[in-house]
Every structure is written in C-alpha cells, then in structure tokens.
Design brief:
disordered N terminus
Length: about 80
Amino acid sequence: MGLFSKKDKELEAIINQIRVDLSNNYKDNAVENIKKLEALLNEKISGGKLKDKAAAEYTGLLDHFKNDVANFKRTY
C-alpha cells in the first residue's frame, strides 16, 4: 500500500528505488535517484499533471529524502 490514494506510477517507481538505495547504504545511487525524482516532479507540477495535494505530498517526501541523504553516515 502506498502513500497516496491515486499514485503516480513513475514517481512511485523512483521513490521505491530511493528507499532501496538508502536501506542498502547506496548514497551515490540515492542522490542520483533523488535528482531524477526532483526533475520528474517539477515537470509534472509545471505541466499540471499532479493535483495540489499530491504535489505537496510528493514534495514533502522529496525534502525528507534530501534530509536523509544529508545526514547519511556510512556504516562501514
């Protein structure tokens, strides 16, 4: 079950990959996928393809990921 009642499949695929990257300590991959997520999210928002509520929730999640990566510490 996802975060949103009507999920955007493209965004959700990137979000799931970021979660996998972070859980496996793949910071470089996570950073790249966060950039992809941000670019796609901005494209969808500017194109009016997301409702305001969904856009706000995805933007909040993007900010959360950025914060996670900023506080990322390698465990090895």
